[in-house]
Amino acid sequence: MCACLLGACGVVPHVGGTDRQTVTVWLMKDSASQDFLRRFTKSFESKHSDLRLDIRIQQWTGIGEKVQAALDADGGGPDVIEVGNTQVPQYVEDDRLFDLTLESALRWGSEDWLPGLAEPGQLLSHQYGIPWYAANRVVVYRKDLFARAGIKTPPRTREEWLTDTEKLNAGGNQGIYLAGQDWYTLSGFIWDEGGDLASDADGGWRGTLDTPAALRGMDFYRRLQSLGDGPAGSDEEHPPQAGVFAKGHVAQIVAVPGLARTIVQQNPDLEGKLGFFPVPGKTAAKPGAVFTGGSDLVIPNNTDEHDGAVAVVAALTGAKWDTQLARTMNYVPNKKSLAKSLAKAVAGEEGAAAMAAGAAQGRATPSTAQWGAVEEDNPIKPYMTKVLEGADPATEARRASRRITEDLNRLD
Length: 412
What we know:
- Helices cover 42% and strands 16% of the residues.
- The chain contains 19 helices and 15 strands.
- The two termini are 29 Å apart.
- 49% of the residues are buried.
- Helix 15 runs antiparallel to helix 16.
């Protein structure tokens, strides 16, 4: 085995005897706790007396090249790999991933999977990436500032959200801190309007920020962003919005619930004052669309342990262990029905409940291996800045859409 396939930053020891076939599983650092993996390994090996698990923990940094090398090797590498949900298309190329369409439809209940995890794992209606867990953005808010403004319950529609945020944008406080280039949040507003970032409906990929639906999404973003002092020319990490919120003069941000821990660490006075609600939708009937981050599991075509690999994927993504992982790590499980059940089970945990409620409306970036080329020098970001600074939205949207089209059709 080549050196690049041997490296791992941690190995979870197997349980049981030595007269077994080994299934090597690459999982990412911090995706699952060591206790969870020990319990899973013990359970799995007790039910599969012919298999042993060799779970190797990988770092996200540099993982793309490492996975590419594993998929191109002549066997001897991992049999199951955890990959980011939007990374699947780049690994499918050249027939390097095992087609799991039949298992998905007949045994694993694919019709109930969260779209934001399932859709990026597909190519031409074939399923290669199997959804494992999800995380999505919610609105993190100051309960005390809402109460001070006379807002008794969080908004459930976009218009209510605008009205409440305008009330909160007073007394030296920002109604919302929304950076000008938070394109993940913008994507949800575009999807709510029936638009998309790009489309292959006409036989070839092209950018679609200039469609009426996408322009409506951008207009809502502009209206919401104006009710705070978020910088038009940078994203949510520059500066980190947790730090901005922790200063104590922001009523809301759009973020994953886990960011609340960082906020409280930076400002302990906010302990007990933070709440969460799903990103509001156009109507109160359902939350707004959100970008779904998370992971899928894939099986390389060059595996020597096909049956064992399928058994591992089936177990990890099945209802029992998927729900346990979600509860352990504050994730959303891979199915809409499981997410709803979890939302009820964690009703006292506002962040998890809000995230689970919004997960059913989750989406992902366009399912093409070339999307990575778009994000390298993301034209969506300067487009947003120019609109927020007063440029004509339709003109700038056409310009950005042309750039997206060029990137999606680039021949490397």
